[in-house]
Amino acid sequence: MSWARDLIGVAVNGLLARKVRTALLLLGPVIGVAAIVAAVGLTDSAKGDLKRKVDELGTNLIEATAASSFGGQDAKLPKDAVERALTVTTVESVSAVLELQNIVVTPYEEAAENFETVPVPVLAADTVLPLVLDVPMVSGRWLNDFDDGVSSRAAVIGIGLARQFDVLPGEVRSLLLNGIEYSIVGIVDTVELEPAFDTAVFVTFPRAADDFLTDDALDGDVVLANKLYVRSVENREDETAEALKVAVNLGGPNEVQTELKSEALELAAQSDRQLQLIVVSMGLLAIIVGGIGIANVMSISVIQRSTEIGIRRALGHTRGTIAAQFILEAIAVGFFGGLLGVAVGVGAIFIGVAVAGWVFTLQPMLVPLGVVLAMVISVVAGLYPAARAARLEPLETLRLG
Amino acid sequence: MDDTPVSTPAPLLELERVSRLYGHGDAAVAALKEVSLRIMPGDFMSIMGPSGSGKSTMLGLLGCLDVPSTGVIRVGGVDVTELDDDRRSRVRGDRIGFVFQQFHLIPHLDAASNVETALLYRGIRAKDRRARSLAALDQVGLAHRHDHRPVQLSGGEQQRVALARALVTEPSIVLGDEPTGALDSKNAEHVMEIFASLQAPERAIVLVTHDPAVGEAAQRRVRMRDGEIVADERVDAA
Hints:
The structure holds two protein chains of two kinds. Chain A has helices at about 1-15, 20-55, 80-85, 110-115, 130-135, 145-150, 160-165, 205-210, 235-250, 265-305, 305-315, 320-355, 365-390, 395-400, and strands at about 60-70, 90-100, 105, 120-125, 135-140, 155-160, 175, 180-190, 200-205, 220, 220-225, 225-230, 255-260. Chain A is of the alpha+beta class. In chain A, the strands form two sheets. In chain A, strands 1, 2, 3, 4, 5, 6, 7, 8, 9, 12 and 13 form an eleven-stranded mixed sheet that branches. The relative contact order of chain A is 0.20. The mean pLDDT of chain A is about 85. Chain B has a domain at about 40-55 and about 95-235: P-loop containing nucleotide triphosphate hydrolases (Rossmann fold, 3-Layer(aba) Sandwich), CATH 3.40.50. In chain B, the strands form two sheets. Chain B has a six-stranded mixed sheet. Chain B has a four-stranded antiparallel sheet with strand order 2-1-4-5, covered by helices on one side. Chain B is globular, with a radius of gyration of 18 Å.
């Protein structure tokens, strides 16, 4: 015990006595561990942000779109598509929309020239779309049964379009769809899973039928939708998506394609894992290069300290204690370099998270892992110089006589 | 008549037909040729000789820093040529104190810590180690400079710290390698006074030197030439 205490004292003294050399030794593990911790932490934090988004938005939103088997442009869903979708037992709610084609949207007559070349999506939507998408209104209200019943020229616009058209929340405004004036009754917030809705205009099905659709788009007096937004029971998304294809189409001429809206976000998270792997590999490379640096600096140090080693040997210190002194110095370099590296890495994560607006995420295991990795690399790097120091003969270094 | 047998004290260190060769085969050079020497308790010995006479080789062997090519070296009756490096190191640490020409203090340690270095790995508590180190520094008149690093001490003071380091383990043999070689005459005189004061019945002091003033301060004078001892004479203290 006392032997170990003496050894620790000698090693610590050795490191503190040569601060520049010690700082050089520390650089390797600090940079390597910091790179690894920052790489894992930053990609985790970015992933944490995506995960939070997915959690907020839900992974159970499915888009079911009509697609023509023959490559037709304007495939439609059957008129009872919503009812058919609801027959799938894992479906919680459904909303239908129809993407209207070739409609020029302008804020008012005088500005028509400035805006008519800007494509703005216009959709006929039912009254439950915000509920299914789980998106709040910024101001006003969504299209309701009254609008449907009287076929009013009421429109809801996305927040992005409101900004483009300088519509203030609560302001009484209208816009022109192919020159027909519609009252803006509400502004809907950003739909994360459907970013195109940010600049879209929503009108009721009956009004769309009256103002823009030909009889081809109707089945009797019912407007045919071309897309459904479906909320399924949690964790049953895949089977719901498959069931919807059959249930909605029911042997009709068109196909139904389904897509999980959160898939894109999850794919983004996956691509981050690849980035993480690359950066972690670079961090590992850095720490290995740092290890080589430690071996170099310590080897030079053995030469520089050969007289000290000779003195210690003359005073009765064994080869084992000399080797142990250098190994212990390497362990200390690894330990403190690892700790410092973790601290620098965590600092980098904090800065990255603050700049990018992510959610700070740090796997707790990274702290001990970083330190242990640095210690292992340092000890391996210190083995050769330690062996070299132990082999030094005092007679060679003390130059007697 | 008194019939009680007079017991001869055992030598502290004994060289028996010791040779040291450097190199191999035809290229081998004998630095020491079948030298025998007994260092007895109370000896104040100088080993003198011209350059190349084998003084340094002798010093390395006396200090257990080297092993002979042939012959036996006994320290306190123990044949150190039979010991492995670790055991020989322990014998060296326990029984021999070194004073070098170039002082060889560890530059980043203060005087007291330099002295303490000789007491490391011996199971001595830090507090006791410090007390013994201060006592040794006191013995050479440097207790008040215990917290000074070598660079803050004069050459004479550094050599006195080295002396304290050699004495702190209470060795039976103190080996000096040209101990005044790097000092001015005043400091050299002071260091030699300390060596003289260290004489004790249970201890031997051996100084390897080519300086006649140092050599003649000793009461036993060994002269070497061409790897052999050519004279070993005792001179009564004045």
